[in-house]
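Students often ask why we bother predicting the structure of a whole assembly rather than each chain alone. The short answer is interfaces. A chain on its own may look different once its partners are present, and contacts between molecules only exist in the joint model. In this exercise we take two input lines together and write out one structure for the complete complex. Read the inputs first and try to guess which parts will touch.
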Amino acid sequence: MHETKLVPGLIVYSKAGRDAGRYYVVCEVLEGGYVLTVDGQKHRMDNKKRKKCKHLTLTNHTLEGIGEKFSSGKQVFDSELRKALRPFNNEEGAIDQK
Amino acid sequence: MISIKSKADIAAMQRAGEIVRDLLLLMEEKVKPGVTTRELDRIAYEFIIARKAAPSFLHYNGYPATICASVNEMVVHGIPGKYRLCEGDIISIDVGAVIDGFHADAARTFGVGTVSAEKQRLMDVTKQCFFDALAVCREGNRLSDIARAVQTLAEKNGYGVVRALTGHGIGKQMHEDPQVANFVTGGQGLRLRAGMAIAIEPMINQGTWQVRFLDDGWSVLTMDGKPSAHYENTVIITEGEPIVTTL
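Now the answer. The structure tokens for the assembled complex follow.
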């Protein structure tokens, strides 16, 4: 059994829209069933993507360090987002990429 | 926040673990062609109540059953129902119990009757992934050592490691920090300390690691429709050998 909490740092999967099939990180939970998401690649920190929650599948994997940075207002770099999402958005796993 | 368990806490977790262990042994006996997953769920509920414990999963965030019964391509969170097990199926049964305020959580994948060699190998490798991870559960090692152990063996066998779901800390709550990934994420992860309790749960797909989620809000299936196996135990880190409460 797994638990999912919609919090900054949560990895989500886009199941609708032009970006369907990609994984993103939640950077902010908005009112009205929306979140702001980034992946450091197609949607960078200066171009966050607003998504309806119902168009996302929530994983139970939270990037804790990045989530804390989002929550505390610290700077998050696109490079660290890309690195963290590499196992999700690339077919190769992290071990294979070494 | 990660809680460090006292000796009394560990004793309570072991009591919960014994119930889950015994229940999974009973489930192994009951898994046969023709039985429905709802019948298995009822047996599990009655067993846990008879041991004066409570099911951890029932009503958890609205989950409607005592066990998760995930057949073939279903990875986890299969809701028990009318499905009647068939010869050659594989079924993962995931169950939790709470007693004296502490939880235990474990899962096994069983073959129904005679299963194909491919499915048997998937189940065997998934189980071995857990034991490879257990071998590095030593104080001072890191969570990434667990992830690497699981991922290395699974991928060496050509399997996909589910990435959207992770293991977790466990104790007074069924889900506590830290999360225990089954694949390497880049960071080293925190160090294991004596008194930490974690649920290590490799979820291994015969094909791609990608999964999809059904609209029931629970069921998780493999993206390519190939079978998946799940093996989980509750593990307590000590200064020496780890304690597996559910074995």
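Check your guess against this: Residues 78-89 of chain A form the longest helix (12 residues).
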